[in-house]
């Protein structure tokens, strides 16, 4: 076979991709017919595709490239670490400097007494760890029946069996008979979609109190933990009403259950603090981390665990769990360098003080568009809801997600990566985005909305 390189014609690369590459969350036949988009390089907030188009990546890859593309410091560190020690495991009473250094740094950064890190290769794996860890913890405390994990509808916690079960995505549950036993779901704090005539504050309390009702229904002696994203990401950037998290925290404090904050998206600056838990006043016992930990440059995830849980587990014999790549030295070294850049370049402050407020102002103006029912943001994650009727927050009569899909197509045509979740449009750009780039982002989003509006009007869908 000829060498396959960036210089091959796009059509040939697309044909090879269609023949041999199975894509995640994709209709394979549809993609093969259409031809995949091929990204060849990236710098800062900008991607370049195989046709030479430059595209503003308002999703930071998959919410992960927090420090932006093209930071040679990370590739230099990876090369140095590969030469020094490309691999060694952390099983069998062994460690290495990158895993030690990263753990100590994460313990410094994480709030409260979250001082212990168990590594995984991804966010999904880390949530698998969490599920086993909390059950093992309660069993070690003489409460083996405390096994149920309470999660929420429309949550996303990964794609493994445990991750997808913890998640509340119906299309994922429908494939393969999920959720696995002892995972249950309560309602989400999605006021715009489900709040009806209630105020957001009333609705936030109502949804939080479903947790207390579920604990009572199951029995506190059966419930191990509650897991939630501070802001649901893949669910559509669902920013909870202000009353929600304080009430959840009160309920977790009042009952003997663990609180797991899934910080895979919210962690490492996304909401304007190091962790979303700090933005929303959450005091978790365990945090799931991945994505922004390495800015996506290498795969790494993990669980940051509080003193109590770590100490009990440490004194309960072997924890029979771990991954070949737990604490991988190259991944750990790259993550540490990424954290250095985030800190030394004050990137989290940039989100909180500059880029977040600027995006809030500009993005908020999209609420005036005739197609937009709400435009909200926190830090550098933002959402707009598309609607045929602003006053009633109505859904389109057409199949759910069709208008969002159209809008996403217009965004691509306008050189903007914006994702759609049903008929919501969402963004989470690299945290290093500058105000002038936010101007470009919002201008392209507005143009795409105009074009979507015109096309659905002319097709009689409004
Ligand atoms: N948790 C959350 C909140 C996520 O957003 C994701 C990924 N989008 C995951 C877990 C799973 O992470 P990964 O894809 O690295 O397995």
UniProtKB/TrEMBL annotation:
Entry-linked Gene3D superfamilies: Aspartate Aminotransferase, domain 1, Type I PLP-dependent aspartate aminotransferase-like (Major domain)
GO molecular function, one term: transaminase activity
Pfam families attached to this UniProt entry: Aminotran_3
UniProt-listed SUPFAM superfamilies: PLP-dependent transferases
Cofactor: pyridoxal 5'-phosphate
Keyword Nucleotide-binding annotated: no
UniProt superkingdom: Bacteria
Record key words, sorted: Aminotransferase, Pyridoxal phosphate, Transferase
Family, per entry: Belongs to the class-III pyridoxal-phosphate-dependent aminotransferase family.
Protein name stated in the entry: Aspartate aminotransferase family protein
